[in-house]
Amino acid sequence: MSPTERNQEKEPPPTQRKSFAAYPTPTYSASASVPYQRNVWDRQDRWNLVVLTLICAFTRLYRIGRRNISSWDERHFGRFGALYVNRTFYFDLHPPAAKLLVALSEVMAGHNGTFNFKGEYPPYVNYKFMRMFMALFGIGLAPLAYLTCHQLNMRRRACVLAALFVTLDNATCVMSRFILLDAPLLFFTAASLCSVAGLQNSRHQAFSRTWWRWLLFTGASLGLVASCKWVGFLTIGLVGLYTIDELLNMYSDRLAIKTLASHFLARVLCLIIVPLVIYAACFKVHFVVLNRSGPGDSRMPPAFQASLLGSPLGHQPFTVAYSSQLTLRSLHSGSGLLHSHAHRYPVGSQQQQITCYGHSDTNNDWIIARPQGEGFNDTSSAPVPVRHGDIVSLMHRQTKTMLHSHRAHMAPVSTKDYEVTAYGKLSWKDRNNNWRIEIVNEQSKVANGELHAITTQFNLRHVSTNCLLSAAAVKLPSWGFRQTEVSCSREGSAQSLSKLWVVEKHVNSRLPKADMRSMVKRSFLRDFVQLNIVMARSNNALIPDRDKYNHLESDAWTWPLLLYPMRMLGSWKKGDIKYYEVGNPLLWWSSTICCVLLPLQIFLYFARRQRKAPAVWAPGEALHYWNGAKLLWGGWFMHYIPFFFFGRVLYIHHALPSLYFALLLLAFEIDYLCRRILQGRLQNVIVGTWAVAALAVFCWFAPLTFGYSGEIEQLKYRQWLPTWNLYRDKYMV
Hints:
By secondary structure, the chain is of the alpha+beta class.
């Protein structure tokens, strides 16, 4: 043991401790007492940090450009980066921060945005630089792990071991070597943990410059991790629970109310407002950059679409007239455009289906007319505008049937509502085809009682039954192609979003086209909320098909056991450069055991304490252990257990954030056990043995991490479990 480490373990007597504003009278027994040991940053730590960073850089950058074909999800995220370069709007279910970083890498690499990231990279695309840029976030995990453990007051050898564990995990390494979002997500997760550990270590210097710096760094890291992927909100949950625990400890220590209020307000500012501002700012940049019409337009409200350059909704007739062709959109997020097709309901009236569909389609086109087609296609007189209170009929352009409802049958899913069908002809005298236009809100300055494209929000009230046409994002069964059910509702407010409609597209050759960008009012807050709602619905729609085998998917319970690693390529033939996302089994299995046994360890400690058994910890040592264990084990728990309740499709790389906490906890426990059981050089032997073993296993699986082009059968001895599909997938035909 070095003299520096021996000095670190000496705890000053109570009379020599300094009191700070937050804890005016710290004691050994108080929950807010001084940590068991305080690490001091010195020259040796700086050298350790440099060496560990270089080792991690080698594992992330070695042969990074070997496969010159778009791999795994590069075809998605690389393409999204190209769309940023082109300023073309797109939709994705993840927040934009990490994809903005991908776009930045493409700009720095000189990409002009023309490559769609499918197939082999052309010579003008510097894909190696893009991969190296994203790998920087994977490289940053090693120094962050070291700094975190240092802030948790672990011994220097344990800090080195933790950084090596993070460096030598094959799964973490391989996911850092491509143009993916996982490396930034892990980096900001690690940064959040490091900043919380620093905040905990400086809690006796409350409101000092150092304390504020750690608090702000925590808030910024939380905002960025949530802006990469929504699983980052699990990190926010961890910090939230830690903050609640900290404030309760202050309250139990009878801190002055004024000081406690100052702590509360400081955390509201830095841990709630700052992350929210960063999260919203990422979307603001997203909207500002993507100002051209693109493949994601249809997911957004018509007013947003019309404001984009090149949008087909940007120039169209403003005032809706009879005989016009329309597409109608429900304002309820996730519903879509009013739609019909030549398929019938298998239940109820068995008439033609009416649904809402989320994509552009000719079956979304309707003709608005007077009842029984009075004056239909009359070109001898000027077009007559549709006004509030008018009774109209809507004819489906493709099938020539009418939007229809009746009392005879209820909706197939929303059984309290009347069924809506496509039935009859325009010339028929059928009151069940008649609907009243009721304008609810006009968002343009032209509020003259006329129906306008995009800006007028209105109800369609069925004349015979007095119900309102409704689309509440309720999905039909497979016979309805999982499209949204449309019904006629007698309940709820007429101003509810499910009952409000807008004219998204208006076609009438007899009317002049207007520049809709001058008519619509865009609101960042409304666009921000709408996009997040659509993202949530898209996430929820990613449901695994349990009746169909997919070699990419895995369940959360299989991750700690490393039962189903993932092939990162569709082709697994000789000559193909193959990558296999398999973790370092030694680290995954041992860290899992550590996470499972830690609650038992804490329980035994409290049991001994309850029975007043002889103390097993020196004064202050129990608090030091608890301060580190609650963060690391809590981080593993918060980033792993919630996946059991997620209904969406899961992959093994979803386990990587929880693995990061587990690896640091493993090093933390090794450090603790060495202190408790071993002395002197034996501690170095144990730590060195763990490091060498982790390195050996990493090297054993390294061909699959750095890319293997030979016959995969030559690596069959690296298949440690029968469930692995390394060289043969018994479930694939």
